Amino acid sequence: MYLLAFETSCDDTSIAIFRNRELIAMKTRSQIREHNETKGVVPEVAARLHANNIFGVLEEVLKEANITLNGINKIACTESPGLMPSLLVGISVAKTLAKTLKIPYIPIDHIEAHMFANYIDRETTDITFPSICLTVSGGHNELYLWKSMFEREKIGETLDDSAGEAFDKVAKMMELGYPGGPIIGKLASEHTSKFQSIFPKVLLDKNNHNFSFSGLKSAVKREIDKRILDNTFLSEQDIREIAFEFEQTVVNILSYKLFHAAEKYNISSIVLAGGVSANDRLRETIEQIAKEKGYSFLAPISKVYSQDNAAMVGILGQYKTQKIPN
């Protein structure tokens, strides 16, 4: 059984093909170059680029899989959440193809797909339930009590900015480009001094699993303004130090909330998902804490599957339609 999957929730046009639960082809067209000019994603621009790219990507992925549309048995597509103009491009194409080919159409939740990215290139039994799953990306930041494969309860969320959005905004403050996460991560890795904790860790109340990054973002802005006022410009050392201190503060907040939730619910299985799960410092910190505390830990097996991609849409679509028992 072949499944065709579409992901156009934000700024990447991604299409994948699965044979059962095996990913046999995926092509992704990035919009980073265009959005770097505006230091962020403009929804109308992203939608136009999706419309321009989607059929070319479709042709490429069919060729890679050595299959025609007539060989496809079902189609899955991200429906929400995301940028509505971008989502509509993928939905329109996917639904039209499904209707034309007279095959099932499977609507996919973007956050659930990020969680299911942990199943790509793994066995069904590799995730132990119940788990605590941290989903962290450019638009979303939640903690889930993942009770069984298709049962999850949101136990915490961001009250303002997500961690990924904060990375983008801090990079923009220092005129570093877009997307901010990889840029900040690289600069942070080049800083050689010890962590000084110059920024506040917000909402570390033990009875609260929610996140807030707007205060941290404001504190970074004040630090940048102070250093510019003192020295008329940010030095390379200033930029690396601010990147390091900011990234480590975000990592400390996320990991604290994650493990506190695991302790509260007496759960020993930890799962990481979403675009920021590609951040090396976050992965390494959570993996180290999990090892010290005796937790099992999983993150997407490849950083490609951490980002927005059609493989996560496809794997969720396959599990949903194959009715794997909880």
Report low-confidence residues grouped into runs of 5 or more: none
Structural class: alpha/beta
CATH architecture of the largest domain: 2-Layer Sandwich
SSE run: EEEHHEHEHEEEHHHHEHEHH
> What proportion of the residues is helical, as a percent range?
40-55%
Say how many strands there are: 10
Quaternary structure type: single chain
Query: Count the helices. How many?
Result: 11
Largest sheet: 5 strands, mixed
Which percent range describes the beta-strand content? 15-25%
Considering the protein shown, what is the CATH homologous superfamily of the largest domain? ATPase, nucleotide binding domain
- Radius of gyration, in Å, reads 20 Å
Mean pLDDT: 94
- What is the rounded distance between the termini? 22 Å
CATH topology title of the largest domain = Nucleotidyltransferase, domain 5
Top-tier CATH class of the largest domain: Alpha Beta
Count up the domains.
2
Give the neighbour order of strands across the main sheet: 3-2-1-4-5
Mass-distribution shape? globular
Task: List the defining traits of the structure above.
alpha/beta, Nucleotidyltransferase, domain 5, 2 domains, 5-stranded mixed sheet
Helices and strands in order:
Blueprint: E1 2-7, E2 12-19, E3 22-30, H1 32-37, H2 43-65, E4 74-80, H3 84-101, E5 105-109, H4 110-116, E6 131-136, E7 141-148, E8 151-157, H5 163-173, H6 180-189, H7 214-231, H8 236-264, E9 269-273, H9 280-293, E10 296-298, H10 303-306, H11 310-322
